[in-house]
Write a structure and sequence with these properties.
The complex is a heterodimer of chains A (94) and B (96). Chain A has three helices and five strands; from the N terminus they run ααβββββα. With 94 residues, chain A is α+β, with helices and mostly antiparallel strands. Chain A folds into two domains: 1-39; 42-94, HU Protein, Chain A (Irregular), CATH 4.10.520. In chain A, the strands form two sheets. A three-stranded antiparallel sheet of chain A has the order 1-2-5. In chain A, strands 3-4 form a two-stranded antiparallel ribbon. In chain A, β3 and β4 form a beta hairpin. In chain A, α1 packs across α2. The relative contact order of chain A is 0.12. In chain B, α1 crosses α2. Chain B has helices at residues 3-13, 18-37, 83-95; strands at 42-44, 48-55, 58-61, 68-71, 74-81. By secondary structure, chain B is α+β, with helices and mostly antiparallel strands. The chains are: A alpha+beta (94), B alpha+beta (96).
């Protein structure tokens, strides 16, 4: 399922709202989540999970094609931890 | 940031009432949960993919006692951030 399918499904459950309205809301949700992470802040969605930014230390990598060494600087990566409720649901689901 | 902050953003930027915003946000996450529970993956362009992966049973060890235990087969949820999200995290580094 992609973002547009998600909008479709949510809109199907909200008869008074147009697809466009739900689309704007879904976009706002993920935009604001992205912005929060860009600021380095944590997100916690009860029953779903939490997102945080983790720092990867600089390392010396290698270009797999040429074998040349390249320095990879400090990088920030988003990290998602599944919430307990969803973790159990996913494991027990059909 | 919590669900309440997301609801606030929708109230401010989209102009729905707080009650409506809250209902819709709940419904979005509920729909995502139901989809993942069925084992279906969710791809959100510009944010990332939520993927359900099946793990085979394996033998683990209690790190405290050293005792071997079988870890049963299970399904786990993983998040793969999009390139766009990864880049935006590191761009802020240069700016600040």
């Amino acid at each position: 399922m992609n973002k547009s399918d998600l909008v479709q499904r949510v809109a199907g459950r909200l008869p008074n709202l147009a697809f466009k309205d739900v689309e704007v809301i879904v976009n706002t949700i993920f935009d604001s989540m992205g912005r929060t992470l860009s600021k380095g802040d944590r997100i916690e969605i009860r029953g779903f999970g939490s997102f945080e930014v983790r720092v990867r230390h600089p390392r010396t990598g290698r270009n797999p094609k040429t074998g040349k060494s390249v320095d990879v600087g400090t990088r920030k990566v988003p990290f998602f931890k599944v919430g307990k409720e969803l973790k159990e649901k996913v494991n027990n689901g059909g | 940031m919590t669900k309440a902050d997301i609801i606030e953003q929708i109230y401010e930027k989209v102009g729905f009432s707080k009650k409506e915003s809250s209902e819709i946000v709940e419904l979005v996450f509920d729909t995502m949960k139901e989809t993942l529970e069925k084992g279906e993956k969710i791809k959100i362009s510009g944010f990332g993919n939520f993927v359900v992966r099946s793990k085979r049973p394996r033998v683990g060890r209690n790190p405290q006692t050293g005792e071997e235990i079988e870890i049963s087969a299970r399904r786990v949820l993983t998040f793969r951030p999009s390139q766009v999200l990864k880049q935006s995290l590191n761009k802020s580094d240069v700016v600040s």
